[in-house]
Write a structure and sequence with these properties.
The protein has about 120 residues and is mainly β. The protein contains no helices and eleven strands.
Length: about 120
């Protein structure tokens, strides 16, 4: 039983900031990797940022220097701090978790949260 619940989306002006949260129903130690993806209308879902169990992070080129992914293992929550937002950041943002510790790999998706950046 694993659930991922995103929150923090909303409407923000260009240049503003927003912080997304992904609350997991289990310990983050259950997962090798946690990531944020986004999907804009008419576009493919794309990886925005990821963090692995060792703390290594990676970012899409389009968000480098503006977005930061982080973990809070006490709260079982992953965050995406988004600064200097642009209209092209408008999308539904999804939390993703991958576990390879079991006999078979398992992955999980949240329901998504809408981020809208106005000009």
């Amino acid at each position: 039983q694993v659930r991922l619940v995103e929150s923090g989306g909303g409407l923000v002006q260009a240049g503003g900031s927003l912080r997304l949260s992904c609350a997991a129903s289990v310990s983050l130690f259950s997962f090798n990797t946690m990531s944020w993806y986004r999907q804009a209308p008419g576009k493919q879902r794309e990886l925005v940022a990821g963090v692995n169990s060792g703390g290594s992070t990676n970012y899409a080129d389009s968000v480098k220097g503006r977005f930061t992914i982080s973990r809070d293992n006490v709260k079982n929550t992953v965050y995406l701090q988004m600064n200097s937002l642009k209209p092209e950041d408008t999308a539904v943002y999804f939390c993703y978790a991958l576990s390879k510790y079991g006999y078979l790999p398992e992955d999980y998706w949240g329901q998504g949260t809408q981020v809208t950046v106005s000009s």
